[in-house]
From TrEMBL:
Protein name in the entry: ABC transporter substrate-binding protein
GO BP annotation list: peptide transport
Origin superkingdom: Bacteria
CDD domains: PBP2_NikA_DppA_OppA_like (cd00995)
Pfam families for the chain: SBP_bac_5
GO molecular function, one term: peptide transmembrane transporter activity
PANTHER family given in the database record: D,D-DIPEPTIDE-BINDING PERIPLASMIC PROTEIN DDPA-RELATED, PERIPLASMIC BINDING COMPONENT OF ABC TRANSPORTER
UniProt-listed InterPro entries: Peptide/Ni-bd, SBP_5, SBP_5_dom, TAT_signal
GO cellular component: ATP-binding cassette (ABC) transporter complex; periplasmic space
Domain Solute-binding protein family per the UniProt entry, residue ranges: 97-446
Gene3D superfamilies: Dipeptide-binding Protein, Domain 3, Periplasmic binding protein-like II
């Protein structure tokens, strides 16, 4: 089975994100990659001992968008965390913000003006200094009402603008106090204005152009094969590069991914997206395998313009019918939990939702009968992410058992969401999502999935529903609530509405597994979202 290019989350203008050839950007001269087949062993250099190349296996494609303001690609987001810096960045596990390009964290998170001074001597990978103009350039793009970016949804509601004070100082002006915004600053990667203001440069960024100020510079980018990096010698920030060179392989086939990390001839030291069935074998071979539990989930998304899925009782019935306990036991090998809220149980904003979809076939049948639905036939349009494909038979068996004739249609993620972008008709989509890529705060997670301008809501055709319009107003009121306890309750209350409506809702939350060789690497922490973070890793 293969995992897909962008297996977890869609983003605005998805079609432009999936265009073909890449470009490399690590200096004043920006050369296009050579054509033809590429070798996944192309590291650019040899070396042994501490000079050897770290090889990582990423279970997702590297040919999605690399534009930090737009991308939701698991591979690109992980790579960009090594290439770029925000004013603040966050710990990959705790998500606590720390100074990156800025010299400090604002002392008053509740203020409506945050002033930042840039790190002295910070330079981009082409040798040019990082200036306040570069910071303003990126935020102006994110907040531009005429430019559709994914990052806009994380900032526009609370950030009014960013002003240059002097060459090394900027001030963020907030619409209202919003302490959660500090952690979100990592999503605004500072990019060089002199590179990305050129005509066509944003399209180059989509295809792989990456020039940042972070500890690693991109040295080659081969879509569908590998991306290479080397330590940036002029980096003077808080996360010093430990590896002279890195080679990240994209191997979406699960068996090939496991083979690359295991055995006496293992060609890599670390891999993410490890299949549950292979954990014992890898551990027996001396590898460390650890999981990160978070928002990773299988969700069902209904087309509310396709009858009978406009009826909330039908959507609820199909959720009640799914034997999610069996799904966790059989498909996930125990590495997950049935969803009891949109948020996972480890999220600080979690409480059980007002509607929890335990396995209840009798209730499912009663709801279908009440809705006047008989002889329902459903095609599930599904992404072919390996663990999703493993879960699909349980969904089919569950729905068949209540008299809903079910057909499975797994396809590449690109194919599924191209149909969504083209507004093609569908009934139900089953796919994977993990908004923890962007952060932990519940307001961010819920706005990523729900909102009047939200891409997901366009897919569901639900945004104009009266319930949806009330929901979106409640969400905005919660965003503006200054009292943390009240805000938490408000978010939990509107999640109850989302659970009841079941328009786009998780079935299970599962762990993501990372495997590495502890005889070679130390400082690894398994993260609960796709990709790897090697900023604190070292050779043993």
């Amino acid at each position: 089975m293969r995992d897909d290019v962008i297996p977890d989350v869609p983003a605005p203008r998805r079609r432009s994100f999936l265009r073909g050839a890449g470009a490399l950007g690590a200096g004043a001269a920006l050369a296009a990659c050579s054509g033809g087949p590429q070798s996944t062993n192309d590291t650019g250099h040899g070396g042994g001992g501490k000079e050897r190349t770290l090889t990582a296996v990423i279970g997702y494609g590297n040919d999605g968008s690399w534009d930090p303001t737009q991308t939701a690609s698991a591979f690109a987001m992980a790579a960009n965390n090594h290439i770029y810096e925000g004013l603040l960045d966050t710990d990959p596990i705790t998500r606590v913000p720390y100074p990156a390009l800025a010299t400090g964290v604002p002392k008053d998170p509740g203020a409506t003006r945050w002033r930042f001074t840039l790190r002295p001597g910070a330079t981009f990978h082409d040798g040019r200094p990082v200036t306040a103009d570069d910071v303003v350039f990126v935020f102006d793009r994110i907040l531009d009402p005429d430019t559709q970016t994914l990052a806009k949804g994380f900032f526009a509601g609370w950030l009014d603008g960013v002003k240059k004070i002097d060459a090394r100082t900027v001030e963020l002006v907030l619409r209202f106090p919003f302490p959660d915004g500090l952690a979100r600053l990592t999503l605004a990667k500072v990019m060089p204005k002199h590179v990305f203001s050129r005509p066509g440069a944003w399209d180059e960024a989509v295809r792989g152009l990456a020039v940042g100020s972070g500890p690693y510079r991109q040295t080659a980018h081969h879509p569908k094969s590998n991306t290479t990096f080397e330590a940036f010698a002029a980096y003077n920030g808080p996360r010093k590069p430990a590896f002279k060179r890195m080679n990240w392989l994209t191997i979406v086939d699960a068996a090939s991914r496991v083979a690359k990390i295991s055995g006496t001839d293992a060609g890599a030291q670390i891999a993410d997206n490890v299949p549950y069935a292979n954990i014992p074998r890898l551990e027996q071979g001396g590898l460390k395998v650890a999981g990160g539990a978070g928002m990773n989930n299988l969700f069902l998304m209904f087309n509310t313009r396709h009858k009978p899925f406009d009826d909330v009782r039908v959507r609820q019935a199909l959720h009640y019918a799914v034997d999610s306990e069996k799904m966790v036991r059989v498909a996930l090998k125990g590495h997950g939990k049935p969803a009891t809220s949109f948020l996972d149980e480890g999220n600080p904003g979690y409480r059980p939702a007002g509607t929890v979809y335990g396995h209840d076939p009798a209730k499912a049948k009663a709801l279908l009968k009440a809705a006047g639905v008989q002889n329902l036939k459903v095609e599930i349009l599904a992404v072919n992410v390996s663990w999703i494909v493993d879960c699909l038979p349980t969904v089919k068996a569950s729905w068949d058992a209540i008299g809903v004739e079910t057909t499975l249609a797994p396809q590449e993620t690109t194919a599924v969401f191209t149909k969504m972008d083209q507004k093609r008709d569908y009934q139900v989509v089953a796919a994977a999502s993990n908004p923890n890529q962007f952060g932990l705060d519940a307001d961010l997670i819920m706005h990523y999935n729900y909102g009047p301008e939200n891409l997901w809501m366009r897919y569901t055709r639900w945004a104009d529903d009266p319930v949806a319009r009330r929901l979106f107003k409640d969400m905005e009121r919660a965003t503006r609530e200054p009292d943390p306890a009240k805000k938490k309750t408000m978010v939990q209350d509107y999640i109850d509405v989302i659970a009841e409506q079941a328009v786009l809702y998780p079935v299970v939350h599962n762990e993501l597994m990372t495997a590495w060789d502890p005889r070679r690497l130390t400082g690894i922490r398994a993260q609960p979202y796709p990709g790897v973070n090697l900023l604190r890793a070292r050779w043993t």
